[in-house]
Design brief:
The chain is mainly alpha-helical. It contains 14 helices and no strands.
C-alpha cells in the first residue's frame, strides 16, 4: 500500500490539473510536448547517464512506438467494448496501443542491444545512429504505413493526464532503479566496466536490460506523441536531429541525474517557444521584421547551450538528484 500511495496521489493531482487547464488549448499543447520530451530524456538517461553508454538513436525507438501504436489505433478505432461507455472503451484501446508501441520499441531495443552493447563509446553511437536511419528508410518505403507521406487520421486520445502520468511513472521507475541492486550494478558499469566485470557483474546483460527499458519508454513517448499530433511523418519528428535534441537534454541536465533530465527537458522545450513569442512581439505588426527577428532564435539558443557547456560541463545537477540535496540540507540543519 505504501508503494501505491504515490501513484494514487499523482493520479488525483494530475486529474485536478487537467480540469484546470482544460480551457487553454495552447497551454495543454505545450504541456504535452514538454511531457513527451521529459519521458524521452529520462529514459535515455538510463542508458547514457546511469549505464555510461552513448546512444544517439533514441528517436528511432520513438518512431517504432509512434507508428506501431498509431497503426493499431487506426485498426481498432471503429470497434467498441460492448459493456463499456464509448469514451472508456476508446481509452482502453488507447492504453493497449501505448503498451503495444512500448513493447515493439523494447523488442527493437533488445534486437539492437544484444549484439551491439558489447561495443563501447563511439562504436555503440554509430550502431544506434545506423538503427535510427534504418527505421526512417523503412518507414518511408512502407506503403502500409503511409510511406513518405506518413500516417494521418490517428485518433487524438492523448490527454494531459495520460502524458504526465507516464512522466510520473518513468521518473518513479528511474529513482527506484537507482536505489536497487540493479541500479548499483549499472552505476558500477558506468564508473569502471572492467572493475565491475571483475566483481562478477554481468555487464552485457545489465546493459541490454537498461537499453530495453529505455527503448520501452521511448516507444511509449512516441505513441503519446502520435495520438496528439494526429499526422506523423518520417521526417523531423524522428530524425537524427531529434535524437541529438534528447542527448542535449540529458547532457545539459547532468549525465546520471533524473532531476537534471526533467528540468533540462522542460527548459529546452519551452525556451525556443518563449523566444519565438518574444521576438515576434518585438516585430509588432511588421510581419517581415518579426520573421527576420525570429531567425535569430536558433543561433541564440545554440549560443546559450555552448555557454552552459563551457561554464558547467557536468550539466545542471551533475550526477546528483534534488531529493539527495534536500536530505543533505535536513542533515545539516539537524
Amino acid at each position: 500500500m505504501k508503494s501505491l500511495l504515490p501513484v494514487g496521489i499523482a493520479m488525483l493531482v494530475l486529474g485536478l490539473l487537467q480540469l484546470l487547464l482544460g480551457g487553454s488549448p495552447y497551454v495543454v499543447y505545450l504541456s504535452l510536448l514538454v511531457g513527451v520530451n521529459v519521458i524521452l530524456a529520462v529514459s535515455l538517461n538510463i542508458v547514457n547517464g546511469l549505464t555510461g553508454q552513448f546512444s544517439i538513436g533514441h528517436a528511432g525507438f520513438m518512431a517504432v512506438g509512434a507508428y506501431l501504436s498509431a497503426a493499431l489505433s487506426l485498426t481498432l478505432k471503429d470497434y467498441k467494448v460492448g459493456f463499456l461507455p464509448g469514451a472508456v472503451s476508446d481509452q482502453l484501446f488507447f492504453i493497449v496501443s501505448l503498451l503495444a508501441g512500448g513493447t515493439g520499441a523494447a523488442l527493437c531495443g533488445f534486437l539492437v542491444g544484444l549484439p551491439s552493447l558489447r561495443l563501447k563509446g563511439d562504436y555503440l553511437a554509430i550502431v544506434t545512429l545506423g538503427f535510427g536511419e534504418i527505421i526512417l528508410v523503412a518507414l518511408r518505403n512502407t506503403e502500409g504505413l503511409g510511406g513518405a507521406l506518413g500516417l494521418s487520421g490517428t485518433p487524438q486520445y492523448t490527454s494531459f493526464f495520460m502524458v504526465w502520468f507516464w512522466v510520473f511513472l518513468v521518473v518513479l521507475f528511474a529513482r527506484r532503479l537507482l536505489a536497487s541492486p540493479h541500479g548499483r550494478s549499472l552505476v558500477a558499469i558506468r564508473e569502471d566496466e572492467v572493475a565491475a566485470e571483475s566483481m562478477g557483474v554481468d555487464t552485457t546483460a545489465y546493459k541490454v536490460r537498461a537499453f530495453v527499458v529505455s527503448s520501452f519508454f521511448a516507444g511509449v513517448a512516441g505513441a503519446l506523441f502520435s495520438h496528439f499530433q494526429s499526422i506523423i511523418t518520417p521526417g523531423d519528428s524522428f530524425s537524427f536531429v531529434k535524437s541529438m535534441e534528447i542527448v542535449v537534454m540529458v547532457v545539459a541536465g547532468g549525465l546520471g541525474s533524473t532531476t537534471g533530465a526533467v528540468i533540462a527537458a522542460v527548459v529546452l522545450t519551452l525556451l525556443p517557444e518563449g523566444m519565438r513569442a518574444l521576438f515576434i512581439s518585438l516585430g509588432g505588426d511588421n510581419a517581415a521584421l518579426a520573421q527576420s527577428i525570429d531567425q535569430l532564435r536558433k543561433p541564440i539558443f545554440g549560443l546559450l547551450l555552448v555557454l552552459m557547456m563551457l561554464t558547467r560541463p557536468q550539466g545542471l545537477f551533475g550526477t546528483h538528484e534534488v531529493w539527495d540535496l534536500l536530505k543533505r540540507k535536513k542533515g545539516a540543519t539537524a
